[in-house]
Amino acid sequence: MFKLLFKLVKLVIFLVSLPFVLLAALALFRVGPEPQIDIQSSRPGIGRQTAVLVKVSEPSRGLGTIKVELLQEERTELLATKTHRPRRFWSFWGDKQAGEELSVDVGRDAFPKLRPGEATIRVTASRAGTWLRHPEPVVRELTLPVRFIPPTIERVAREVYLAQGGSEVVVYRVGETSVRDGVQAGDWFFPGHPLPGGGVRDRMALFAMPYDLADVSKVRITAADDLGNVASLQCVDKFFPKPFKEDKIPLNDAFMGKVVPEILSRTPELREKESLLESYLMLNRDLRQTNAEKLKALAKDSAPEFLWRRTFLPIANAAVRSSFADRRTYIYEGKAVDQQDHLGFDMASVKQAPIISVNDGTVVLAEYFGIYGNTVIIDHGYGLMSLYGHLSSIAVQPNQKVERGGLLGQSGETGLAGGDHLHFAMLLQGLAVNPIEWWDEHWIRDRLARKLGGAFPFEPGAAAARRKR
After folding, report:
1. According to the 3-state scheme, what is the secondary structure of 393-430?
2. What whole-number percentage of the chain has pLDDT above 70?
3. Is domain 36-146 annotated with CATH 2.60.40.10?
4. Which of 160, 326, 411, 421 counts the most CB atoms within 10 A of its CB?
5. Residues 232-251: pLDDT tens digits?
6. CATH fold for the domain made of 153-240
7. What is the pLDDT of residue 71?
8. CATH 2.70.70.10 domain range(s) in the chain
């Protein structure tokens, strides 16, 4: 009997003490694991603007305090801090923060006291502790070079004369640290290319003055290094502003009832609006913008070479029914309902007239294309393209080589066309430019060929005619 009572007492003592033993064990051993820290820099070093992404994770007990600092010589700058509460050492469930991302800017624009040389990004993440143990935090560092001097730029060709809405070429030389160069014109960037036959740092850029930009100071050659340090240089010697015309376009239900159903049926990603007018405005605004973005995207894959050698052909026997970059106000029932810029020429002769390529190139688009209806786009190299819209039929295919004067299709009234005509546009990096310049042999010879020399294999009309004879 005594032995049985003794065993019961021992069992009771064991059961009563077990929670305390387990709690002591947890307090001694259940320290959180080391947080995983990943430091990612957007650039291989620190320039004027360098973004750094810090990722910290600890999926067991969760994160505690995270601190991000920038160290250079004797200076320490606090970039970011975040405090979380990990689970208690005795808790196996409940809320916790398993991961955290912190984005910081470590460039000189954010920290003017930075100096060239090196700087270190330090991340400190605390470990979850217990009553009995308080482990040291985990520290990770990333040391990066610091450089603020941008590449050099030197203009080689002078006499850059630019008209509003027009095109030009500039020849220049960049320093060896340059990784991206070209001409910035307002919001538009025109990339530079190696100058054919030139030195290793010699560059050329076909560029344009946007039709809606009148401030020539915003047109500059730029060169950036791998740390984002940017140099810029004025590149226009003479500027010719050109006010564009305004026009009013009357809308009626008959016209909208013709064009809206056709475009919606050929553009299945769009949904019809509650009224015919709302549907038309969606096409005129939103689809027009979508088409404009596609033109920019096509230009990125333009051939890095001249695909043409002769002056661009004007559209023969066609009456011009609009001027370049008309600002159109659309009127419905006596009220202005929209305003858009018409970026090209509307040209008409006879119904279903043959449409030819204005120069040698490669077909990059031959399909139904939003507001332009059946459309062909030809790449002429270095981001220069020609667009032929509203066609009734298409006679070419994508990737097909076409010759100057080659048949592309027939005129029509597809897309946002009120009658049979051709919508013609010249594009540079997706930006519509004045086609008249490209039809002018004197302009091409004076503005391009004279500055590019042997880099541009131009064949003036007289020389081409003599070679044929």
Report:
1. EECCCCCCEECCCCEEEECECCCCCCCCEEEEEEEECC
2. 87
3. yes
4. 411
5. 999 999 999 987 788 888 99
6. Immunoglobulin-like (2.60.40)
7. 96
8. 246-438
pLDDT band, very low/low/confident/very high, at 467 (cuts 50, 70, 90): very low
pLDDT value for 346: 85
Beta-sheet pairing, 335-342 with 326-332: antiparallel
* pLDDT for the residue numbered 198: 93
**Residue 349 — pLDDT band, cuts 50, 70, 90?**
confident
Q: Which residue spans of the chain are classified as CATH 2.60.40.10?
A: 36-146
Q: What pLDDT is stored for residue 224 in this prediction?
A: 96
Closest CA to 342 of 434, 413, 263: 434
Average pLDDT over residues 122-132: 81
For residues 32-55, give the mean pLDDT: 93
Which option is the CATH number for 246-438: 2.70.70.10, 3.90.110.10, 2.60.40.1930, 2.170.130.30?
A: 2.70.70.10
